[in-house]
Write a structure and sequence with these properties.
The protein is an alpha/beta fold and 457 residues long. It contains 16 helices and 17 strands. The strands form four sheets. Strands 4-12-11-10-7-5-6 form a seven-stranded mixed sheet, with helices on both faces. The two termini are 34 Å apart. It binds pyridoxal-5'-phosphate.
C-alpha cells in the first residue's frame, strides 16, 4: 500500500472529524485511511490503494459498492424528489417499499414504521411496545423490558438500556431505565457453565423464571435472533429463538426481534427469524435495508399492535414519535432495488455458494494455535482469539490483539474491524468466490502475524 506523502485530507480529518467508537488519541497518532471510492466488494483510498471490504462497511453493504441497479434507482428518484416528509404526507417509494417489506417479512407483520438507523428502529420498537400496553389499558403495569447479556441494540438511551455489553453501556447506567437481563447464548463461555446440547437451552429457559417473577409487568423481550453481533458474532444454539418465542407467548408478553445486523441475507436467509419459523410482534430492520447505501430503518409490527394506536383524535393514542428524514424517498428507492436483487434466484444461489466457500475456508483458520473458536452463521463470522487454546484464556485487553490483527490485514489489502479480541468477517453478498478466498487467506496470514502462532500443536 503506497501512501508516501501526507494528503491534505488526512490533516483535515484529524483537525475536524471525531470518529465513533474510536480512541481519538490513537487515531491522531496514526495515518488515517480515507476512502474515496468503491466498486463491488472493494474500496479505494485517496492514494489509489484498493482494499477488499471484509466487513461490508460495518455490516451494511449487501450487493457491493456502486451496484448499477441501486445507483440507477437512486438517480431516477433524484430526478423526482430527494425528500418529502411522512408527517402528514406519503411518498411513492415509501409506500412501495413498505408493501415490499411486508411481503418478505415473517408472517403477521403488516405495518411499517420508518426511521433512520438501527438505534432509532429499536427506540421506536421499545416506545411502541410500552405505548401498546398503555393504549390497551391505561396504567398497565407492563412497563418493563427483558434483554440478553451481550446484547447490542444501538446507542440511543433506549437501545443502551436494553444493551448488555458493559464496555459500551455501563458508563451510561445512571441515565438509563432499569431492565432485566438473562444469560446470553454464548456457548463458548457459557455463564451457566453448561454444554450444548446437554444444557437443554438453559440460557433460553432462564427467561421463564424472570417472566414468572415479573408476571404481568413485562412489555417486551428483545433479542438479536440467531447471532448477537456486537457481542462478537455469538451464534445462538439451534432452538434458542423458538424457545424465547414460546416463553413470551406463555407469559403474554411481546417479542421484539432486532434484525438490524442479521437482516437482508446476512445469515443465509433474508431474515434470521425464518430459520426457526419465528414471527416476532415487532421487527427492527436497518443496516442492509438499503443495500448499504442510505441511512434508513424500519420497525415492522403486527396488526394488533398497530390497531392499539387507533382511536378518535382526542383520545391521543397516536404514536407521538418520528424523525425529519423518516421514509426518505432516496433510501426507500435504494431499498426497493436492493430487495429486488436479493430475492433474485441468481443472488440466492450465489449467497448459498458464498456461505459454503466461507465455511470451507474457515476450517483452516480453526486449527490455528490462538484461535479459540470460529463462529459462523451465513455470512456472519466471529473468530475468537485466545492466548491459550486449551484453557480458553483470553488475551488481556491491553494487548490489542484484535487491532493488531486488522492492522496486519490492512497491510495485506483487506479492511476488517474487530470486536475486542474477536475478528469479524462479514463479506457482502455480492463478494465473488475468488475475493472470498483472498479474504480468508489474508485473515489467516494476519492472525498468524499478530499472534505469532501457527497451527495448534
Ligand atoms: C443488532 C443491532 N441493533 C442495533 C444496532 C444499531 O444500529 P445503528 O448503528 O444503525 O444505529 C446495531 C448496530 O450494530 C446492531 O448490530
Amino acid at each position: 500500500m503506497s501512501r508516501a506523502e501526507e494528503h491534505p485530507l488526512e490533516r483535515a480529518d484529524k483537525a475536524y472529524v471525531w470518529h465513533p467508537f474510536t480512541q481519538m488519541a490513537e487515531w491522531l497518532a496514526e495515518r488515517p485511511l480515507i476512502i474515496e471510492r468503491g466498486e463491488g466488494a472493494t474500496l479505494t483510498d485517496i492514494h489509489g490503494n484498493t482494499y477488499l471490504d471484509g466487513v461490508s462497511s460495518l455490516w451494511v453493504t449487501v450487493h457491493g459498492h456502486r451496484h448499477p441497479e441501486i445507483d440507477q434507482a437512486i438517480r431516477d428518484q433524484l430526478d423526482k424528489v430527494a425528500h418529502s416528509t411522512l408527517l402528514g404526507l406519503g411518498n411513492v417509494p415509501a409506500v412501495e417499499f413498505a408493501e415490499a417489506l411486508v411481503s418478505v417479512a415473517p408472517p403477521g407483520l403488516t405495518k411499517v414504521f420508518y426511521s433512520d438507523d438501527g438505534s432509532t428502529a429499536v427506540e421506536a420498537a421499545l416506545k411502541m411496545a410500552y405505548r401498546y400496553w398503555q393504549n390497551r389499558e391505561p396504567g398497565s403495569r407492563r412497563t418493563r423490558f427483558v434483554s440478553f447479556r451481550g446484547a447490542y441494540h444501538g446507542d440511543t438511551l433506549g437501545g443502551v438500556s436494553v444493551g448488555g455489553i458493559d464496555l459500551f453501556h455501563a458508563a451510561f447506567r445512571p441515565l438509563l431505565f432499569p431492565t432485566e437481563q438473562v444469560p446470553g447464548p454464548y456457548c463458548y463461555r457459557c455463564e451457566l457453565e453448561l454444554v450444548y446440547p446437554e444444557c437443554e437451552l438453559a440460557c433460553a429457559e432462564a427467561l421463564g423464571p424472570v417472566l414468572e417473577r415479573l408476571e404481568g409487568e413485562v412489555a417486551a423481550v428483545i433479542v438479536e435472533p440467531l447471532v448477537q453481533g456486537a457481542a462478537g458474532m455469538v451464534t445462538a444454539p439451534p432452538g434458542h429463538l423458538r424457545r424465547v418465542r414460546e416463553l413470551c407467548d406463555a407469559h403474554g408478553t411481546l417479542l421484539i426481534c432486532d434484525e438490524v445486523a442479521t437482516g437482508f441475507g446476512r445469515t443465509g436467509t433474508i431474515f434470521a427469524c425464518e430459520q426457526e419459523g419465528v414471527s416476532p410482534d415487532i421487527l427492527c430492520l436497518a443496516k442492509g435495508i438499503t443495500g448499504g447505501y442510505m441511512p434508513l430503518a424500519a420497525t415492522l409490527v403486527t396488526e394488533e399492535i398497530y390497531e392499539a394506536f387507533l382511536g378518535p383524535y382526542e383520545a391521543q393514542k397516536a404514536f407521538f414519535h418520528g424523525h425529519s428524514y423518516t421514509g426518505n424517498p432516496l433510501g426507500c428507492a435504494a431499498g426497493l432495488a436492493s430487495l429486488r436483487i436479493l430475492q433474485r434466484p441468481s443472488t440466492q444461489a450465489h449467497l448459498k455458494a458464498l456461505v459454503e466457500r466461507l465455511s470451507a475456508g474457515l476450517e483452516r483458520i480453526r486449527t490455528l494455535a490462538h484461535v479459540g473458536e470460529v463462529r459462523q452463521r451465513g455470512l456472519m463470522v466471529g473468530i475468537e482469539l485466545v492466548r491459550d487454546k486449551e484453557s480458553r484464556e483470553p488475551y488481556p485487553w491491553e494487548e490489542r490483539i484484535g487491532i493488531k490483527t486488522i492492522e496486519e490485514a490492512r497491510l495485506r489489502g483487506v479492511i476488517l474491524r474487530p470486536l475486542g479480541h474477536v475478528i469479524v468477517l462479514m463479506p457482502p453478498v455480492g463478494m465473488t468466490l475468488e475475493q472470498c478466498d483472498t479474504l480468508l487467506e489474508v485473515t489467516e496470514a494476519s492472525i498468524r502475524a499478530a499472534t505469532g502462532g501457527g497451527e495448534a500443536a
